[in-house]
Amino acid sequence: xxxxxxxxALAWLLPFALIFGGFQLAPLGYVxxxxxxVDDGWGLDHFREIATxxxxxxxxxxxxxxxxxxxxAGLIVATLACYGLTRAGGxxxxxxxxFTNMTSNFAGVPLAFAFIILLGANGTLTLALERLGxxxxxxxxxxxxxxxxxxxxxxxxxxxxLLPAFAGLRREWREAASLLGAGRLDYWRHIGLPxxxxxLMGTLxxxxxxxxxxxxxxFALVGNNYNxxxxxxxxxxxxxxxxxxxxxxxLSLVTVALxxxxxxTQQRLTRGRSTCG
Amino acid sequence: xxxxxxxxxxxxxxxxxAETGRAAATASAAxxxxxxxxxxxxxxxxxxxxDADIDRGEFVxxxxxxxxxKSTLLRTIAGLSSLDAGDIAVAGETITHLPPQRRxxxxxxxxxxxxxxxxxxxxxxxxxxxxxxxxxxxxERIDQALTLVDLQAHARRFPHQLSGGQRQRVALARALxxxxxxxxxxxxxxxxxxxxxxxxxxxxxxxxxxxxxxTLFVTHDQEEAMMLSDRxxxxxxxxxxxxxxAESLYTRPASExxxxxxGAYNTFDAEQATRxxxxxxQGRRFAVRPEALYLVADExxxxxxxxxxxxxxxxxxxxxxxGSIVRYRVDCDGLSMNVDTLNRGARFLMATKTPVVxxxxxxxxxxxx
Lengths: 277, 369
What we know:
The complex is a heterodimer of chains A (277) and B (369). With 277 residues, chain A is an all-alpha fold. Chain A is 76% helix and 1% strand. Chain A has 13 helices and two strands. Chain A has helices spanning 5-11, 14-35, 45-52, 54-87, 90-104, 109-119, 124-131, 143-167, 171-179, 184-212, 216-222, 229-239, 245-269; strands spanning 37-38, 41-42. A two-stranded antiparallel ribbon of chain A has the order 1-2. The longest helix of chain A is centred in the first third of the chain and has 34 residues, at 54-87. The radius of gyration of chain A is 23 Å and the shape is globular. In chain B, α3 (120-130) crosses α4 (135-148) and α4 (135-148) crosses α5 (164-176). Mean pLDDT of chain B is 87; it is low at 1-27. Chain B has a six-stranded mixed sheet with strand order 6-7-8-3-9-10, sandwiched between helices. Chain B has a five-stranded antiparallel sheet with strand order 13-17-14-15-16, covered by helices on one side. The two termini of chain B are 14 Å apart. Chain B is elongated, with a radius of gyration of 24 Å. Classes of the chains: A mainly alpha (277), B alpha+beta (369).
């Protein structure tokens, strides 16, 4: 009986395999090939252009900057929130987790709109803060504004990813440590954070990927006025007067390379740290 | 037959009274002293005015069913749970309000609680590291502690690479390395399989005796408690129901609650006891261990107690093999009881429906309070 099960079980994966192949692998292959396609055959011309153009280099730099800052900020806030959630009572925890679930799916144009009416030039909060004399001017459509909106959507994702790791921290470890003479800081330094380290790094990588790949929110907010990788790629395939899909493919491949590099770094940083029991 | 006061008399001769409801109060000599310890979770009382005195180097077991408060008592001694009222003192020093870090108490947890990110050596040495012991001394003491639990070869391994028994030995070494004044153990063997448990029990007792370490051990396993302990505190509903050495607790339970937990005591009312013994008895409730009853299928028999009485005729209704023991369920015209006999082999086993006579050893019938 068991021998006949695996092929049958595998058959259920067929729809997933079709979707994954058709919408993930095939476009990736198409992009990979397109990136090396030039007018008279194959070459590295597009990559050369990206490397020498201050405009594209700025897009890469800004994408990396906003991803790193918002992911680091998001990770710190999410870590503190998870710590708070593990100590909170059952009811508060359930409410906050439900809220986090909802906000983690609140992205794109609706999120941009929400921020515009809250923190835009005539946003409710902006006007209130100005009237209270807490800020002189606040520009949502700037680097600082983007950092805030990015961090906002990174936090709930970070919480959802980190919460299981925090739940895995056993009370007995803290108790055993305290009986052995460890204070709260000692516990976090020697046990809590080292145990969480692989999860923290894994979450950071996903947040980085999330930030680098963000398009809809930022486009709804600043249009073409802020130079980021995703905005450039979109312009090259649909927005500009002269479309350059091959150059867009090369930029996409640069994005893939950056994410791969981050993932490899994360794996290197957490190698041998993953433990069980 | 003995009343509850009668049960206390011979025990007192041996110096270990089987006091009920409260502990012996030799306050001045006690190493660990608990006075009026109380704790509630919300409206539910978990510990109800517990008094106890434990001598230096003594191995004491807190025995009782789940939820009786034994683990909570251990946690209050460790400082992991606060008290609502009462005092705890070690060697004359009150530690009631000290944080766990300053109590100088070691603890072994049921599920080991080893730090998964640290090697065996780092786990064991953690307490010394927190006490800023220099590295050379630390290394030497880690080596000694691992030798004590027979795990020198595993120093570089991580907890997830060890078996359950090995993990618990690491946890023991970790708790012992700081030379605590008291060692607390919260059901440390219950997550292990029977064979390892047996081996670890012996090792545990031997280490405790070698170090002459005052130890409080929590278990719900009666056999474990009897095998290990100098004294057993039997707990129920947040109180110490009875305490004493294994022999006095087992053979002289002072209440039905104790009798129902230690051994598979048969309990009878006065009318049933009269039928079993063949004469009137004083008291309302009685208990007798299943191995203190004698089962005879073909009279006359030489293996009867000194004063067997007329016996109670009945029939075997069920038989249960418990390894070296065979437990028969016997029905004597409506009076039902368990009788344990040694399992001498298949040809000695009695079938169900066999007519038998049950005799009781009068000296082993206890009057319950």
